[in-house]
Structure formats: C-alpha cells, structure tokens
Design goal:
The complex is a heterodimer of chains A (298) and B (618). Chain A is built from 11 helices and 1 strand; from the N terminus they run H-H-E-H-H-H-H-H-H-H-H-H. Chain A is mostly helical. Chain A has one domain. Chain A is globular and about 60 Å long. In chain B, strand 4 and strand 5 form a beta hairpin. In chain B, the strands form 2 sheets. A 3-stranded antiparallel β-sheet of chain B has the order 3-4-5. Chain B has a two-stranded antiparallel sheet with strand order 1-2. In chain B, 70% of the residues lie in helices and 4% in strands. At the A-B interface, strand 1, helix 3, helix 4, helix 5 and helix 9 of A face helix 17, helix 18, strand 5, helix 21 and strand 6 of B.
Chain lengths: 298, 618
C-alpha cells in the first residue's frame, strides 16, 4: 500500500523530469542540425522556474480552470501507463481509458484558449483539432490491431505478453501497424513538420499567444507530459515496455531522437497537406495491419 | 398500484391541463408540473414488480393488456423523469406565446403515450399508443410557424410509413399466432420458420428504424429537431426517438428471443450483424455531417442520429456486455442530449431565438449555469471519463474488440473523435470567444430553466462516477432477457478481460486537479484584463471584431464536404417530388366539368366494345 502510494507520487515527478529533458534535448538537436549551438539542456527548467515568478494576465475563470484541468488530465494519463514494472493505476479500464483520458489535456487547453478569444488562438485550436482528427484515424486502427492481436484491452497484459514472447514491432502482423504508428508519431508530438497548430512565425504560437507567466509555465509542463505520454505509449505497445525504468528510459530516448532527427529536415506542412499525408500512407498501413491481424486471428 | 390508474393520471392530466388553461395560466402550469411529478413517484413505486393484467377485453375481440417488468420500468422512469424536467423548463420558455394550453397538453400526451408504449402487454395497445405518440409529436413539431410545418410533415410521412410496416407485421403475427399478447406470441413464434421470423424482424425494424433514425431512415430527424420548440426537442431527442430502441429490444429479445435472433442467417450475413453495420454507418456519417452545421440545434440533431448508432451497435451485438452498453447508452444519451438542448434553449430564450452559431459568442459570463450545462453535456457526448457517456461507450467498445469486430469498433471510436470537433465548435461559438455588442445586456437564465440544467448536470457526473446504480437495473433487464449476469460493482464492472474502475479515475483526477490548482496558486498573481486588452497586440482593435470561428474547420470542409452530401435525403426528396408531379397530372384528369366525365365514361365504354370486338375475351 505504502509502496503504491509512493509510486503514485513519484511517478508523475519522474515523468515530468523525463519530459522536460526531452524538451531541452529537442531544442539542442534542432540547433545542431541547423549548425547552431542551441540553449543548454536545462533551459526549459530555468524557463519554467523563471516564468512562475513573472506577472501574467487572465481572461476569466475558464481561462484559469482550463489550464488546471489540462495539467490534471496529463498527470492522470501518466498514472495509467506502465513505466517499467511500475503501473500505479493501469488496472482500471485499460487502453480505452488511456485513450480517453488523453483527451482531457487538449480539451482543457482549448477551453482555456477559447475564453481568451484571440484570433490566433482560434486558428491554432482549429488546426490542432483537425490535425488530431488526422492522426487519430491511423492511431485508432493501430491500437485496435494491438488489442485484437493480443485479445485484451489491458495495457499491462500487452506489455507482459511482449516480454514473454517478442516485441510487437518485430512480430509478424504487428510490424505493419508499428511502422504506421512511427510515421504518425511526429504529428502526435506536434514537432516538425507537424508544428502547425503552434506555428510561431505564422500565428504567434497559436493557443499559447495569450499565456504568460505561470500560465506559460504550466502549459510547458503539460507539453512535457504530452511528450512523455505519447512516447511511453509507443514503447509500451511496440517495444515491449521494460523491466526497469532505466531501460524504459533508454527506449524512449531512442524513439524520440529518431523522430526528431528524421523530421527536423522537413519544412512545416500546411494543415491540408498534413491531413492528406496522415490519411494516406499511415492510414493505409494501419488498415492493412488490422486486416492481416484479423485474417490471422480467424 | 394499478397500471390503469397510472395511465389515467397521465392522459387525464393532459386533458385537465388543457381545460384549466382556459381559466388560469398559473394553475395550469402548476398542474402540468404536479402531474409529471406524480407520474415519477407512481412509477418509482413500481420498482421490481412484475404485473400483467387485461384492462379491456373487447377491442376487435382482442384483450388489451398492460404489464410492467424491469425493461419497461427502466424506460418508464427515464421517460417520466426527463419529461418532468422538460415541463419545468417549458414554464418560462413558452410563457407569452400563443396556444400554450395546447402545447402543455400535447407535451403531457406525448409523455403519456410513451408510458403507454412501454407498459403495453399486447401489440394492439402498443400500436395505438405508438400512433398517439406519433401524432402528438407531429403537432408539437409544427408548433412554430413556417419551416416547422414542413419539418412536421416530413416527420409524419416517414412515421406513417413506419406504422404501416409495423401494422403489416402485427396483422401477420395475428394471422400466424391467433393472439397478440406479447408473452403468448413470444412462446408461439419460436416454432416459426427462419424465413418468417426474418420477415417479421425486417418489417418491425423498418418501423423502429425510422423512429430511432437509423441510416438510411434518418432524414426526418434533423429538420424536426431543429424546428420543434426547444423544450419539446429535448423530449423528442431524449426518450421519444429512443422508443425505437425500446421497440428493437422488444422485437429482438422479448418477442423473437435472443437465441433465435442471434442465429438468424449464416456467417457474416447474420441479421444482427447487418443491423450492427447499419449502426456503425449511422455513427460515422452523421457525426461528420454534424461538423458542417452552423445551426446549434441542427448540429445536436445530427449527433442525435449518430449516438443512436451506438445504441443499435450495442444491442445488435447481443452479448450481455453489449446489451448493457446499448441500454445504458440510451439512458445516458437521453440525459446529456436533453441537457444540451436545454442549454441551447436557455440561450435562445435570452437572445431572442438565436441559434446560429456564427452570430453568438462569449456568453459564458452572462449565462454561467447554461455554460456548465453545455460543458458537461458535451463531455458526456464525447464520453470523457467520469461522465456517464464514457461508461456505456466503454462497454460497447470492449464488446466489439473482444468479440473480434475491430472495424465496427473503429467506426464507433472514430465517431467519438469526429464528435470532439463539432461539439467544441458548438460550445465555443455559443459561450466562449467574443461577446457580440448586441448581447452585452443578456441576463442569466430564469430559475425554472436553471433547475433542470443543474439536476441533469449532476446526473451526468453521478452516473459517470458511480455507474453501478443504473447498471444494476440494466443487469436485471439483461438477465430477464436470458443473458448472463455481469459482475457489477458500484463503480464499474469487474471481469477477467478488463476491469473498469471509475472510482480510481475519479480520485486520481481529483488529487491531480487539486495539485495542479495549488501549483497554479503558487505562481505569481495574474491580473484580470478584458478580452480586447492584447487582442491585436496593442494595435487598434476594430469595433466590429473578427469572428474567426465562423469557418472553424474550413480546411477540413474542403476535403470532406464532397463525400458528405445527404444522398439519402436527396433521394427521398426526388421520390417525393415525382409523386407530386404524378399526382398533379392525375389531378388534371378531374377537371370538375361534367362534360369531361361523360367523355371519360363514353371513351371507356368505347374501349371495352373495341376490346370485345377485336379479341372476344368475354
């Protein structure tokens, strides 16, 4: 019991550290690809602490509560993912619950931004929602292949089966789905070329434009969690999770660096191009994966 | 407590309400609310009882029977409770309009007829109450002027087609079994041939499919929902449309029986499998059409069709988990869609009937209760965890995935993600964003509107956090229909293949929210400023501000719009207009002049003589 409570407290903190590290790492890698030095790795931490002390403006109660809701949603989503052998809450509804809890965070941000009524925010949110519809189509197909193949909706089961047999990404029908997931991962993470919703040069960072001070700090924390959740989900579903947190972290790092490196060289998509891309190759692959999975199962 | 008394109260109340309205409006309002409340209490007292009795034995030589069991009790409680809330909501909404006496009595009659349907023990009384319901609905849809009449006509024409199909089924059953008592028919029909059962299922499915707006029989719904007065749209969307679901449950699992229904057909071409696919289509297409709507009520109406698909999907799949999901979703959907229509109704009431999403905005500070109702309503519609919609959807998804139908599950899941886009637009364009100048003086909704909104908001959370309360009843329905019992706890479902524990999610979210809030409070104080403060980054703000959400999903529209024309509706319209052309040309024949008629008779006789001379057939 005590151990479980300790896990529940420690796990989000650990996830935050990993997520913030990834934020710093992404900037560093991007800088090196563009022949710059880039900021130090701890820059996001410095920024967050500094922002907490800075003044900010608020546009009303929903503006505040939306941020709180979105951060809370992210923390809960983290608790539902197995991280190595630690899985504090994942026995309460499985993958379907994770899928739905991941909705709370963007919804909170959208509600908060909605009250600010800045045109840039509206454009940003609309792009974000369209993009998410774009990547959810292949993502849902991929998750359904996993659940159909392993005949379970529990993510712990999925991890356990992979550890006793082999990783999904190298097992026969699922590697097709895994490839599709990897292709849409940048869109889920919102990194280049899919940084459409926050495009700084076009719409002044979109949903972030009215945030300053602690609001910006909290959204940065939330963003770090989102990075963690999306990659951890991939590692759990396709790379067999891990026995201990250290190996888990290494796997996450490999996935993240790969997707940043591959995508840093592409220019930003327009939203239609992004949706077209997402609904073409990744969806086709995911669809194929699901059909093969079905054929093998029956 | 006899069932006759209950129906007498229901129908008599409607009549007395009409008569009292001629004397005093206040007394009439009071009576309407009291009758509805009394019905809730009377029905609640029937919990767990199982009665069946003949109340009239001479109708065409057939006994008319009333009965109550778990299934009908469940629907009756939902009908009467939601009906009461809608009557309360009407109090201020409808005040000062014409024909309010008529409105109230029709509303009560519609509710009474629904109660009659679920308490019917034979198919004749079922049909009679079904028709009373259809006609009172038609009158209420056409309550508003101009476009409402056309919507009402569309509804009643489709409804009559459905009733005709049902009548064919009922008379065929009578010819086959010699009785129309539901329990007797269900005992006799088991020996019928599969072909006959399929015929019965198809004719009844047409009737119930039209009522429940299953694609491609859905076309009456968007117009009717949009044009009916908002409190009645709430009744219509909440339980009235879902009488179709009750009908499906009745014909599939009570009359024909689960064992027969689920084994009809072979391989992938089983009856229930095809029905499930219709359900899946009904989820996906309307959800995407909803994204293109700019009318608040029409947007919700398309979701009403889409959510009906989930219920069909759950019920058609015919596992105890799926059935529970389908029935539970019927209740949940009723709660949140009624709430959403009330929220729209409150906004309409205060803004002079405005329901165009592009001209509203920023009402959150003016109408906070309506906003909370709208927020929880869309959360339920999307199925965010801790709202009721999540639990029933979870049950349906789990069934589909574990039974090896991932494509059906995909249709259901993608429906949810399509929903997010349209309902965010719905909430944002009404309550968030910029407040137009003309709505600067808008007042809060009156108490009689706030009360139902608050009650329903609480119900969404209650059934989301403690889904065990309704699921216990639903489980009893499932076992009474011959399905396996589920392992229900107060906060979810336990099973080997995946457990749902809402209390875990709830406590985790609560703690996380408190922590996030503390973190938020710890930071430096923020200054509250108006929306225009850094709107244009310090530049001049135009007086007539931009409405950037008017074409919210424009990039997506351009991509998907060609695929989303309502082809079925166009097709029906074409049939309608060709029937009209035909009737017009037939009408020309009846010129009204005696000379023409004499000419017709003479030429007909000449034709007969010609035939006789030429071929000598007689």
């Amino acid at each position: 019991m005590v151990i479980k409570v300790m896990q529940i407290i420690l796990f989000p903190v650990l996830a935050l550290i990993v997520g913030v590290f990834f934020l710093g790492l992404a900037r560093k890698i991007m800088a090196r690809i563009q022949w710059r030095y880039g900021p130090p790795l701890v820059q996001p931490i410095i920024d967050i602490i500094r922002l907490f002390y800075q003044n900010s403006v608020s546009h009303g109660r929903m503006f505040d509560l939306g941020i709180v809701l979105s951060l809370a949603g992210s923390i809960v989503a983290v608790l539902f993912l197995p991280f190595g052998r630690i899985c504090p809450l994942s026995g309460s509804g499985g993958l379907l619950v994770i899928l739905y809890i991941m909705l709370i965070a963007p919804l909170g941000l959208a509600l908060s931004g909605g009250q600010a009524a800045n045109p840039n925010i509206s454009i940003g949110i609309s792009r974000k929602l369209i993009l998410s519809l774009g990547y959810e189509v292949p993502l849902l197909l991929v998750l359904l292949s996993i659940m159909t193949h392993y005949k379970t909706i529990s993510i712990i089961e999925v991890v356990n089966i992979q550890q006793s047999t082999s990783w999904s990404i190298i097992s026969f029908p699922l590697f097709v789905s895994g490839l599709s997931y990897f292709l849409i991962l940048p869109a889920i993470l919102g990194i280049r070329p899919f940084d459409i919703s926050s495009a700084p040069q076009e719409i002044s960072s979109g949903p972030m434009v009215e945030y300053g001070g602690k609001y910006l700090a909290l959204t940065t924390i939330e963003h770090a969690y989102v990075l963690f959740i999306s990659i951890a989900l991939f590692v759990n579903l396709f790379l067999g999770g891990a026995v201990n947190p250290a190996i888990f972290f290494v796997k996450m790092l490999v996935v993240f660096v790969l997707s940043v490196c591959i995508n840093a060289i592409f220019p930003r998509f327009r939203i239609e191009q992004a949706v077209k891309y997402l609904w073409k190759w990744p969806t086709l692959l995911a669809f194929l994966g699901l059909i093969i999975t079905m054929a093998i199962r029956s | 407590m006899s069932l006759e008394l209950l129906l007498v109260v229901a129908f008599g109340g409607a009549l007395v309400t009409y008569l009292l309205g001629k004397i005093s409006a206040k007394v009439r309002d009071c009576l309407a609310v009291c009758v509805s409340l009394a019905l809730v209490v009377l029905i609640a007292c029937l919990y767990g009882k199982s009665i069946e009795r003949t109340f009239y034995s001479g109708f065409l030589g057939l006994p008319l029977v009333l009965r109550v069991d778990m299934l009908s009790w469940f629907f009756a409680v939902a009908i009467s409770a939601l009906g009461t809330l809608c009557v309360i909501f009407s109090l201020s909404y409808i005040r000062g309009r014409e024909n309010t006496d008529f409105y109230y009595s029709m509303m009560l009659i519609a509710n009474a007829a629904m109660l009659g349907i679920v308490f019917s023990g034979d198919l004749i009384s079922f049909f009679i109450f079904w028709e009373i319901m259809s006609w009172s609905t038609f009158l209420l849809i056409s309550y508003n002027p101009a476009p409402a009449l056309a919507a009402g006509m569309k509804y009643i024409i489709m409804s009559i087609i459905g009733s005709a199909a049902m009548l064919v089924g009922i008379s065929s059953l009578y010819a086959k079994c010699g009785t129309l008592n539901i329990s007797e028919v269900s005992a006799l029909i088991a020996s019928a041939s599969p072909g006959y059962i399929l015929f019965i299922l198809i004719v009844f499915s047409i009737a119930f499919g039209i009522k429940n707006a299953v694609m491609p029989l859905h076309t009456w719904l968007p117009d009717s929902y949009a044009e009916a007065p908002s409190p009645f749209t709430a009744v219509l969307s909440g339980m009235l449309t879902r009488m179709g679901i009750y009908g499906f449950l009745l014909i599939l699992y009570v009359i024909v029986g689960g064992v027969v229904t689920l084994n009809l057909g072979s391989g992938k071409f089983k009856f229930n499998y095809i029905l499930a696919w219709l359900g899946a289509i009904t989820i996906v297409i309307p959800t995407f059409i909803a994204m293109l709507q700019n009318d608040a009520k029409r947007l919700l109406a398309w979701h009403g069709i889409g959510q009906g698909g989930y219920m069909i999907l759950g019920i058609a799949f015919g596992t105890s988990l799926g059935l529970a999901g389908g029935i539970f979703h019927t209740l949940n959907h009723a709660i949140y869609i009624v709430l959403l229509f009330m929220s729209v109704g409150a906004v309409q009431y205060r803004t002079g009937g405005e329901r165009d999403l592009n001209s509203l905005g920023g009402l959150i500070k003016k109408m906070p209760i309506a906003f909370i109702g709208g927020l929880l309503g869309i959360a339920g519609l999307m199925g965010i965890p801790l709202t009721n919609g999540f639990v029933s959807k979870w049950l349906i998804y789990k069934t589909l995935i574990l039974q090896g139908s991932p494509f059906l599950a995909f249709a259901a899941l993608i429906g949810t993600w399509g929903t997010i886009l349209s309902v965010y637009k719905f909430l944002h364009n009404m309550f968030l964003g910029q407040l137009p100048e003309k709505y600067k003086e808008v007042q809060k909704a009156p108490v009689s509107m706030q009360l139902p909104i608050i009650v329903l908001s609480l119900a969404i959370l209650l059934f989301g956090i403690l889904p065990g309360i309704p699921l216990k009843v639903i489980n009893a329905i499932g076992t009474s229909l011959g399905f396996e019992s589920l392992n229900i706890t107060l906060w979810g479902i336990t099973s080997e293949s995946g457990t749902l524990n809402t209390i875990n999610i709830f406590s985790a979210l609560l703690v996380a929210a408190v922590l996030s809030w503390l973190l938020f409070r710890l930071g430096a104080k923020s200054v509250s400023v108006s929306q225009e403060d850094n709107y244009a980054a310090g530049a001049h703000t135009p007086a007539d501000k931009y409405h950037y959400t008017a074409e919210f999903y424009n990039p997506l529209y351009r991509m998907i719009k060609p695929f989303l024309r309502d082809i079925v509706d166009d097709f029906y319209y074409r049939i309608g207009s060709s029937v009209q052309t035909l009737s017009n040309s037939v009408r020309r024949v009846y010129a009204g002049d005696v000379g023409y008629y004499v000419m017709y008779i003479v030429s007909f006789l000449a034709f007969l003589i010609f035939v006789q001379i030429k071929w000598k057939p007689w």
